[in-house]
Every structure is written in C-alpha cells, then in structure tokens.
Task: inverse folding
C-alpha cells in the first residue's frame, strides 16, 4: 500500500494560497442606502395596508 499522496491530491504552497476564500461582506455594508430605502418602503407599505384594512372594515359595516 502506498501512503504518499498522489499528484491529484497534493497541493503546493502556491495552490493553497490561491484557494483561500475571503469572507464575504454583509449586505448592509455593501448597499447601505438601498437598505434604508427598503426599510422605508416596507414601513410605508405596512402603514398603507393598515389604513386600507381600517377603511374597508369601516365602510363595509364590519364590526
């Protein structure tokens, strides 16, 4: 039995350095203005939804 690594599994130091993956940046750091715009849009849509539900219940006679 041969215990030495074969050519397909053996990596040199240069190959190991090339395969190092840098950790990805989080989305808020990459798109900070987009994140704020998205939060604002969600808040406005939520308020509009609440107002529409209130108006529909009020004018439909739902109690």
Result:
């Amino acid at each position: 039995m041969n215990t030495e690594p074969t050519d397909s599994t053996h990596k040199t130091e240069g190959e190991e350095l090339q395969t190092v993956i840098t950790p990805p940046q989080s989305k808020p750091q990459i798109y900070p203005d987009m994140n704020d715009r998205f939060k604002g849009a969600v808040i406005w849509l939520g308020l509009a939804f609440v107002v529409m539900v209130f108006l529909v219940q009020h004018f439909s006679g739902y109690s």
Q: What stands out?
A: The mean pLDDT is 75.
